[in-house]
Structure formats: structure tokens, C-alpha cells
Amino acid sequence: MILIDKALAARAAESRPIGVGLVGAGFMGRGLINQIVNSVPGMRISVVVNRTLSKAENALRDAGVTDIRVVEDAAGVDAAVAAGAVAITTDHRAAVAAASVDAVIEATGAVEYGCHVVVDAIDAGTHVVLMNAEVDGTVGPILSARAKAAGVVLTGCDGDQPGVEMNLVRFVRGLGLTPLVCGNIKGLQDEYRTPTTQAAFAEKWGQDPYMVTSFADGTKVSFEQAIVANATGMTVERRGMRGADHAGHVDELTTAYDVEELRRAGGVVDYVVGAQPGPGVFVLATHDDPKQRHYLNLYKLGEGPLYSFYTPYHLCHFEVPNTVVRAVDFADAALEPLGAPTVEVVAVAKSALPAGTVIDGLGGYHTYGVAERADVTAEQRLLPIGVAEGCRLTRDVAADDVLTYADVELPAGRLVDRLRAEQARELPSGPSGG
Questions:
Q1: What CATH number matches the domain at 343-426, 3.40.50.150, 3.40.50.2300, 3.30.390.10, 3.90.1210.10?
Q2: Reduced to 3 states, what is the DSSP secondary structure of residue 390?
Q3: Cβ-based neighbour number of residue 257 at 10 Å
Q4: Closest CA relative to residue 210, chosen from 221, 220, 223, 224
Q5: Helix H or strand E segment including 23
Q6: pLDDT value at 224 more than 60
Q7: Region 376-387: what's the mean pLDDT?
Q8: The CATH number, out of the four listed (3.90.1560.10, 3.40.50.150, 3.40.50.720, 1.20.1300.10), of the domain defined by the range 4-158+317-330
Q9: Is 0.85 surpassed by the pTM of this model?
Q10: How far is CA 156 from CA 129, 428, 432, in A?
Q11: In whole angstroms, what is the distance from residue 334 CA to residue 336 CA?
């Protein structure tokens, strides 16, 4: 990990910066633009893609960029970069096909649109960093398989909890321990929050109320832990995970799980609400060697059998440039599925919904997401929340009903549905656990 600073310094000294195409100039995108422009020598923003060009332009100007050029295609991007400018465009295809773009960062949080960005980038041979756990948790396994076949790195990002968890997993494995719990620390969990209840918080921080609601109602943590499960081969103990309230330190969780049950499951992903040090992540791991357990006790990690490791923060956009360097210079993914999914995120009704309801977006008024074993999802034909938006209910559903494909009509012609079918065919989910 630390070697990326030297890789960037060498690029800066040789005037060959990594070119980044950013798709999405929302809250995270604006922070990322500022970070790369002002704090990451050896990297540059080549192009920003946004459906509203003024938002892309304003984000660049806020970061101190003055030479901004509107372009329509990849040639326009390359011409702008050659002239020392930054391109802006409404067409993601201009970014993924530009020679001056080494990696595309997808930061929209939109599933259907994000699928198009990733597929087009893979087809163009351009690396992709996903700041979009929703795409990853819905069709990440098949997109990863496509990327590998094309020789492209498709990766989740450092800085968000899943990437921080995976870095911790790799560290713990490097010590010779076996991770058995990957955990996420939340400050709030209320499945029935809506954009109305979260409007004031969203306005205070300049965020989208739907995105903020997805944090509060559990959808986001479900996606985050699903993609960690798919990257480690872990599973969930139960639908929705344990999700316990815990006011103490995560070190105290070493006694909360049965080690043998964890081993039989192959490890689990989970989250806790209210724990310290928030808002970080933790990994609980075990060691089979009694000699090494003696040393771990000496080093103040306790007698085991579970040992606690944690990172007390996740710094989101500040860390994403690290992922770009890892992908471009070292062909290393911060987070990627192992193969077939082990955990999916399924849609649950927030309230009673009548037949004919067209389901709104993630973090909306109609549904929240919960993590479920992928084999159960497939067997029961549960509806992934990543495909729920725009579906029309064919029956009345009660609050807290888990939706199935039989309950909805899918919108016609969507890429996400074709990818889901391809994923089910090429990467079928088998029974979870041992």
C-alpha cells in the first residue's frame, strides 16, 4: 500500500500523470476532484462526466481549475488534455474511450446507468474504480468476470468501508490469522427513514436526501457488507445480518460469536450500531498455532480464540486516488468478487404498497435493502433491490414483505436485467457454508 506514494512521485517527476475520468459530480465527486487537483501529484483529472454540465464545471472551478472545455467525444477529451485543459461532457463514452484516460471512476450511485459505464469501459479496455457499491452488489460478479477476460481491472474503492475492510482482511491474513467476521460500524439504523425524514441532514451537508436515506435505512450497509462477502467468500448468519446494538468498543465483540459456527459458515459479514471506534470497521480473526496465540496475548490482543483488529475511520474520497494507482500501475484491485456471489441485497417493503405502485429509487419511500445468502435469493427468486427501481407491483404487499420477481413487472430493455441473467447463468450461487 505505502509504495503508491513513490509510484505517484515518479510519475510527477517524469510528467506522466495518471489520467482520470470521473463520472458523477455529486457530493463525493466534488470532493474527489478537489483531492486529485490539489493533493495528488502524479495524477490529473482528464474529464468529468455529468448530465448537468454546470455541476461538473462548478466542481472543477471550486477546485481551482480555470481551463475547462465542453467536449462531445473521446477525441475532444484528448484534445482538451493536450492543451492543458480539463474536459467536461454529458457522454460517459467520451471518457471511457479517451486515450488520455487511464481509469474511470464511477461515482453516481445509479445502478442502470452505472452498468452502462462499466460495460462500455471494459469494452474500451479502460480500468474502472467503483464508488458505486450498488452496481457492485447487484452485478459485480459478472462485471468482474468480463473485466478479467478483457484484461481490465474493475475494483471497489479504498476509503469507503468495504475497501477499508478488505485492506484489513489482507493485513490480518498476512499475519497468518484467519478472518472470521468482517464488520461495519454504524451510528444509526432505522429501516423506515425516508427522504422526508432525512431532508434536514442532507441539506446541512449538501448531500442528496435519497443517498442519505440509503445510509439510514440499512440499504447502504447491506450493499457494503454484501460486496465484502463476495470478495472474501463469507456469508451472513441470517437475513439482514445480526446488526446488534453495541455501545462498547469492538474489542468486546470477540466474545459475541461462536468460533466453530463461524468456521463452519466460512466467516460472516456483519455490522454493529453505536460501537467504538466509529465510524470505522473491524475484523475478528483466529489463529491455529498455540505458539503464535501466546505472542498475540503478549502483544495485548488477548487469549483468543478471536482477536480484534480495527480501523477507526474511513476517509471516503481522500483515499480513492490510492485505488486508481493500485489499478493502473500495479494491476491490483482493492476489492473484487471471488466468483459467484455469496450474498445479495434484496428489496423489502417499507410500508404497505398497493398493486400498481412503481417502486422508487434506492433510499426512497418504498423499499429498503437487506443482505441475504445468494443461494436463498436465487432459490426463492427474491428481488434484488438493485433492480427494483422502476418495477411495477402486480399485487398488494404488506410492510416488511420481502419482494420477489413474481411480485413485479420489470421495465423493458434494461442492461441490469440482462447482466443479472448472464450472472445467474455463468456464475450460479451454490449453498453457503460448510
A1: 3.90.1210.10
A2: coil
A3: 18
A4: 220
A5: strand 18-23
A6: yes
A7: 98
A8: 3.40.50.720
A9: yes
A10: 6, 22, 23
A11: 7
